[in-house]
Specification:
11 strands; 148 residues; 47% strand; 12% helix; mainly beta; six-stranded mixed sheet
């Protein structure tokens, strides 16, 4: 292997190693991905929380889902948009420890949760949902797919 090729490989490996030092877990920091995950904390209920999530002109901050053994679910967060006529859309799913989707959290049977925003104003969003309680003991994490 030539000297310049060896240096190129070493630099590439160094960049890969350094990038792994800055990985942020789903429960902290700002998220800009369309899909984010958080890990269950709790026993009789699973609590999931996220840091700031952004999508387009919209921001969701302090998102928290609680999934209860009886199949009920509750959600809260604050949302913001710098533009008018924006709507925050969210599709939550429960996953097992291997990342397999156990099923959606639904709102009146619909897997999509929707809330409008007010231009330039933080708005509190509280919602309730349900899921198939038969898979509660298998829940390990939760995935939010978002759009605004």
């Amino acid at each position: 292997m030539s000297g310049s090729r060896r240096i190129s490989m070493i630099v590439s490996l160094f960049v890969l190693a350094m990038s792994s030092l800055f990985v942020v877990p789903a429960s902290a920091g700002t998220q800009t991905a369309a899909t984010t995950e958080a890990v269950c904390t709790g026993a009789g209920s699973c609590w999931f929380s996220w840091g700031r999530i952004t999508a387009g002109d919209c921001i969701m901050d302090g998102a928290k889902w609680t999934l209860n053994r009886d199949g009920s679910a509750s959600f809260e967060a604050v949302i913001f948009s710098s533009d008018s006529d924006d709507w925050w859309l969210m599709w939550p799913n429960a996953l097992d420890s291997s990342g397999f989707v156990l099923g959606p959290i639904t709102h009146g049977g619909d897997p999509k949760f929707v809330r409008n925003t007010v231009k330039g104003q933080w708005t509190w969003w509280f919602d309730a949902g349900s899921f198939d309680a038969r898979f509660f003991d298998r829940i390990d994490r939760m995935r939010l797919s978002n759009s605004c």
